[in-house]
Amino acid sequence: MLDYKDIITRHYALAMSGKAIAESLGVSPSGVNDFLRAFKECRTLGYPLPPGITNYGIAAEVYGKNPAIVGRDLSYELPDYESVAKAMSSRQNMTLVVLWNRYSKKCRDSGLKFYSYRQFCENYAKWCEENKETLHFNAVIGQKMEVDFAGKTFQMVDHLTGEVVKIVVFVAILPYSQLIYAEGMVSTKEPQWISVNNNALRYFGGVPALVVCDNCKQAVIANRDWIAPDLNKDYAEWAEHNHTVILPAKVKKPKYKSSVENAVGILEKGFFHDMEEMDYFSLEQFNRDLWRHLEELNNAPFSKKPYSRRYYWDEERRELMPLPPVPYEYMERRTAKVSSDYHVRFDNAYYSVDRAYLHKEVLIRASTTTVKIFSKEGEFICEWPRATSRSQWSTDPSHLPENYREISEWNGTYFTRRAMTIGPNTSEVIKRILASRKLEVQTYRMCQGVLSFSRKYSKQALEETCRQALEIGKTTYTFIKTTIPVIAEELGAAGYNTAVNDERNKGAFVMGADAMDINTLLSRSQSLAESTGKGGEK
Length: 538
Fold this sequence. Notes:
It is a single chain. The protein is an alpha+beta fold. It has helices at residues 4-13, 18-25, 29-41, 55-63, 81-90, 96-110, 117-130, 190-204, 233-242, 258-269, 272-275, 283-299, 309-316, 404-407, 412-420, 424-434, 444-452, 459-472, 477-491, 498-504, 518-531, and strands spanning 144-149, 154-157, 164-174, 179-185, 210-213, 220-222, 230-231, 245-248, 332-337, 343-346, 349-352, 361-366, 370-375, 380-385, 393-394. It has 4 domains: 4-134, no CATH class; 144-319, 2-Layer Sandwich (Nucleotidyltransferase, domain 5), CATH 3.30.420; 332-404, CATH 2.40.50; 410-504, no CATH class. The chain is built from 21 helices and 15 strands. It is elongated and about 110 Å long. The model is unreliable at 66-71, 132-137 and 534-538 (pLDDT under 50).
């Protein structure tokens, strides 16, 4: 059977003669010319062809019969095999039995003769063979997205440092329409993995029911039995956020994600060759080039077909689930203990937690914009805007008990009394630190930090440091931290807490001053040599 669609396209779009078309296709010129004449005489069909029409449809319009079924009994109603093929490929769990039952019922209701189930299946197989180039459908419409990394990597050169950085390419595809998305990445860690998956959904304009992925560490922790894989927590939550399901492929079974494997091959055998000849100096530059090539690919007609990936995507996107109003954000996870100041520390900033969780461990989940705090059991406690500067404090007064100064281990009185045991300068510094914030509780860590220097350094060193801090008006933890080592060194032995050192060394053997004398060491060496026989015979 001639490829009628290809002949029409070559003749009208490329202005090829019947003879030239026949030579390029390796068929008889008379057959091509006969068809072109019949096509021009056809009153119901013309160029450009209507969307979705097959060779069968063209033959039926031009010749009034289906050439795929030779010598059939015309008294039997011919099934619409194009609709059958589309239903089989685009509807999950569809069978030929169901479709034959629909066909036979329709014929009975209309009083028409119909083929048996066996004949129905045999003729369908013949139709598929004759029209195989039209069967682009190999998946259920809107059912899944397949994702993977391309094997080919690229390089970019940082124009400031000259450093050569590797670019990895993420690839996603909708198997039904074969629409492809790709994006370069210089990091493949979880935040970037979540980001490119978000970008793929946005590019496709919706969410499929399934996401089939490779067993990469960004997606899967373990996949021992395939039935119940252990997913990366962030990727699992990403799927829940988008109301889809992650289905990792079986280990070392590429057929489970054959569409994306094929897409990777198309890219690597296609415009990747042109891109590897280019010099890239930023990821943005690389992706602009990648997306330009990708748009050309997605808009280009399939081989021997007048329709592109984008054409079939127009149909598929209507079957995708809608995108969520807000894309999923990657969350950093930490465990922290609520300190005596009712705050937890995260990324060099401090966030208050309800007093009920004092001295308890809590879970922190932070995005780029928010910090959420949960109990160890997963119960939500509170949420804060993420700090924008180091040492920033976020405090809700309702988290603090009204009498926290009395019931907490840390309070102003506690730190003042400790400071008085060191000296008046230290006491004054502590008082000024306590008064430096709107909420006193936010200063407790600084007070604790200043007073803790007395463990290593002497009271004299800490007092002198605080005196200098008061003198120049820098009564801060940072100033004391950087200054006290210098003052301690100037004071010599008097600058350090010798009591602590003496306690640490209690009971230890103290080597005499002559232990390292050169004559003593030589004498020991000679004795050792003689005892082992290396200095002469015993």
